[in-house]
Design a protein that fits this description.
Blueprint lengths: L7 H8 L1 H23 L6 H4 L2 H18 L9 H17 L10 H33 L2 H31 L13 H24 L5 H7 L4 H10 L2 H7 L2 H33 L7 H27 L6 H18 L10 H25 L6 H8 L1 H20 L7 H15 L10
Helix pairs in contact: 2-6, 2-7, 2-8, 2-12, 4-6, 4-16, 4-17, 5-6, 5-8, 6-16, 7-8, 7-13, 7-15, 12-13, 12-15, 12-17, 12-18, 13-15, 14-15, 14-18
Length: 438
């Protein structure tokens, strides 16, 4: 039974809460290294702090996907998980930036900060994954590219807001410096306001989206009543992975290089920009905090570049060509960062990085969900596919300190490493055989 076409606003409502979730994710990705460096972390240990986010993602998202496949409440099957995840994220966002203000020892501060980071990423993953599943559940193949493009737009719009918050709050007068080991007010209030927007956006989606009842869901998703339920209850992750289409694994290979590249960006880019433009990597130096704010602006420029490039992607005749060219442009952007000594020149590489980011957000899920039609277990498969996002980040984080030492201890050089990784991802796109939407 063919899924019905949905109006633009129905597609919009399916993903609107993603705007708030992405604000939280943007605040995390752009400020975690800055926060832990301010608290006293060594640059060679910095990548280890980034193990927790993808580790929690690789654990939480398959669980959420599998459990939500088997869940039905009067609120739906996916929505309860995204609401609980958002509620926990709000609480943690109010605690994490205050890690250095609790009067704890350095070791205790690091442990508390790591615990909060673990909870934050767990809850963000729990809130984020259901939005992708809702599109897989309720949108037909013809409209999926449009649905994920809307999701990509909201994702990037939320990113812009989250990235510029510290710069904005500094501009209106909040302090951007603080005593040693304490996070500045500009960052703390960014997390507070981001938490408020997150819960309001999720409440909007919960109030507007009504998931299909089990019988109708089974009809639209190619499962026949009790038979579909039996398949859901008997399958396990190993069986699903064994039976996954080859496209699942080939896109996963591309994802490996792409997400490793971005992990190094999130870990080292504040120090890279500060080193290249301001000539310092000392968190106690006011220039470092200025660099941290400007990096947030550059992240926002990257997100705006992604929004613009997302409008260009559908114009390519070949999705594979669009995917590969986007990743090559992103890789070029990474490689240019150490060679732009003026803060305004840094805008060029970040616009190019935005091209790669736009393709990474929209294309993998479009290609994979089309390939998974008829396989069932959409939530479980998308949860497992999230492993292609999380696992490369874990491996990259474990290797980060060694790679940094190998290339001469310069954080700016890690951006060249990211560029090479993204170019490798572009090469692997050629291995994908895309299933066309019916």
């Amino acid at each position: 039974m063919q899924k019905p076409n949905l109006s633009f606003w129905n597609l919009w409502n399916l993903s609107f809460g993603f705007f708030g979730v992405q604000i939280a994710y943007a605040l995390q990705s752009s400020n975690i290294s800055r926060i832990f460096r301010t608290l006293g972390a060594d640059p060679h240990d910095l990548s280890y702090f980034w193990i927790l986010p993808p580790l929690m993602g690789i654990i939480v998202q398959p669980i959420v996907g599998t459990l939500s496949d088997r869940t039905w409440t009067r609120f739906g099957r996916r929505i309860p998980y995204l609401f609980i995840g958002a509620a926990v994220a709000v609480a943690v966002m109010c605690l994490l930036p205050n890690s250095g203000s609790l009067g704890l020892s350095l070791s205790a501060v690091m442990i508390f900060g790591l615990l909060m980071l673990m909870l934050l990423d767990t809850s963000i993953n729990m809130a984020m994954q259901p939005f992708k599943m809702l599109v897989g559940d309720m949108v037909n193949e013809e409209q999926k590219a449009k649905a994920y493009s809307i999701q990509s737009f909201l994702c990037n719009a939320g990113s812009v807001v989250g990235f510029v918050f510290p710069f904005f709050f500094t501009w209106i007068g909040l302090k951007n410096v603080a005593p040693e080991g304490v996070v500045p007010d500009s960052v703390i209030w960014s997390f507070y306001v981001g938490a408020a927007i997150l819960i309001l956006c999720v409440i909007y989606t919960v109030s507007k989206v009504k998931e299909w009842p089990p019988e109708l869901y089974n009809q639209y998703n190619g499962q026949a009543g009790d038979a579909g339920k039996a398949r859901d209850s008997s399958a396990n992750w190993f069986t699903l992975l064994k039976n996954a289409p080859s496209t699942f694994w080939k896109v996963g290979l591309v994802q490996f290089f792409c997400w490793a590249a971005f992990l190094y960006m999130w870990t080292y880019v504040v120090d890279a920009v500060s080193e290249t433009v301001w000539g310092t990597t000392d968190p106690a130096n006011e220039a470092y905090q200025v660099a941290g704010n400007w990096t947030g602006v550059l992240y926002a420029i990257q997100a705006m570049g992604s929004v613009c490039w997302a409008l260009v992607l559908p114009r390519f005749k070949s999705s594979k060509m669009a995917y590969a060219i986007s990743l090559l442009l992103g890789g070029l952007g990474f490689a240019l960062i150490p060679f732009c000594p003026d803060k305004y020149l840094q805008i060029i590489p970040f616009l190019l990085i935005g091209c790669g980011w736009a393709a990474m957000l929209a294309m993998p899920f479009t290609i994979v969900t089309n390939a998974l039609q008829g396989y069932g277990h959409m939530g479980a498969y998308l949860g497992l596919f999230n492993g292609t996002i999380c696992l490369p980040q874990i491996i990259a984080a474990l290797c980060g300190g060694s790679v940094l030492s190998l290339i001469g201890h310069h954080q700016s050089s890690m951006m060249i490493v990211s560029g090479v990784l993204l170019a490798a991802g572009a090469l692997c796109v050629t291995f994908i055989k895309e299933k066309k939407a019916q």
